[in-house]
Amino acid sequence: MNTIVVQELRVETRIGVYAWERRLAQPLIVDLQLALPSVKAFASDEFADALDYAAVVKRVQAFAADHPHQLLERFAEALADILRAEFGSPWVRVGVAKLAPLPGVKRVGVVIERGERRELQPRG
To answer: How far apart are CA 102 and CA 79, in angstroms?
Structure first.
């Protein structure tokens, strides 16, 4: 499987089950793996055939800035849905973590996988 990887993308968002958590933006770390919808870019070397990871990052930042979710689990699920629908990825892994949410804890988060893991075959 061919994937695009985005690691340790820091976004600011309001998220949490407690009202005090949602008053101020807090940082989240987002890790992504997206299966490529096509293998064309490997042969063509054309940007038009590639998955634009800058567009992925911009979309994740926009989503984080304005979402209605309280739980990291729901945030990750909604983000996975967006990535699969808008970027055509057949499989995604999304990790989302809060930084220092509890005393003595560096990060707490969730990792989900959605879609079908498969090896893409070149189209002839």
So the answer is: 24
The pTM assigned to this predicted structure is 0.88
**Residue 3 contacts residue 121 (beta carbons within 8 Å):** no
Starting from the edge strand earliest in sequence, which strands make up the sheet with 107-115, in order? 3-13, 26-35, 91-99, 107-115
Active site residues: 98
Q: Compute and round to an integer the Cα radius of gyration of the chain.
A: 16
Q: How far apart are the first and last CA of the chain?
A: 18
- Which of 73, 32, 26 minimizes the C-alpha distance to 56? 32
Report all structural domains of the chain as residue ranges with CATH numbers, in order of start.
3-115 (3.30.1130.10)
pLDDT in tens, the chain (124 residues): 899 999 999 999 998 888 877 788 889 999 999 999 999 999 999 999 999 999 999 999 999 999 888 999 999 999 999 999 999 999 999 999 999 778 888 999 999 999 987 665 554 4
Neighbours of 35 (CB within 10 A): 23
